[in-house]
Amino acid sequence: MRLIPQDEKFHELFIEHGERVAEAASKLNDLMSSYTNVQEQVATIRGVEKEGDKIVGEVHRRLERAFITPYDRQDIHDLTSNVDDILDGIQAAAETFVVYGIENPTDEAKEFTSILAAQSSQLVEALRKLSTHTGIQPHIATINDLEHRADGLRRSSLGRLFRENGNAIEVIKLRDLYEQLEEAIDAAQSAGKVISRILAKHH
Fold this sequence. Notes:
CATH superfamily: Phosphate transport system protein phou homolog 2, domain 2
CATH architecture: Up-down Bundle
Strand content: under 5%
Number of strands: 0
Largest sheet: none
CATH class: Mainly Alpha
Number of domains: 1
Number of helices: 6
CATH topology: Methane Monooxygenase Hydroxylase, Chain G, domain 1
Oligomer: single chain
């Protein structure tokens, strides 16, 4: 058994994890634009999230037996945890459509998922470049810009929700959905911060 795994394997796992995020975010976006066979589409997203869990387990196993790691163990743990939080948030949002029986996604929900899909694409590109430590900051900057856009959307969407929707139950359903989507968006920004921290330590 190799006590010192090649750095490339950790990077491969980071990329695979990011690709699962991008896949799940894309499928959630697809659900927004084609709101049919909802349970089947949500089941597909659930399957992607489980694939992500397997990657998390593999990262943790490698951390436990590695004598030398490419980055600080805490940074590897934090990055993996934040990326996993994105997947968890995507799945939670998808499940909300089924559990709450939401009839149709709102324009705001569509915009949140569009932001999340764009962030996820930027994140996977940053992870693909992590081993070279070059060309990453523009992706992180875009992730942050998208998170700021989501902050504004949250304020406007919640304000509109309470002003225009007289059905208290619908308000609760949609508020929970928006919060789950924003948690995933915030997790993407947190993952970007860990990547920036890694870069700062290795320059």
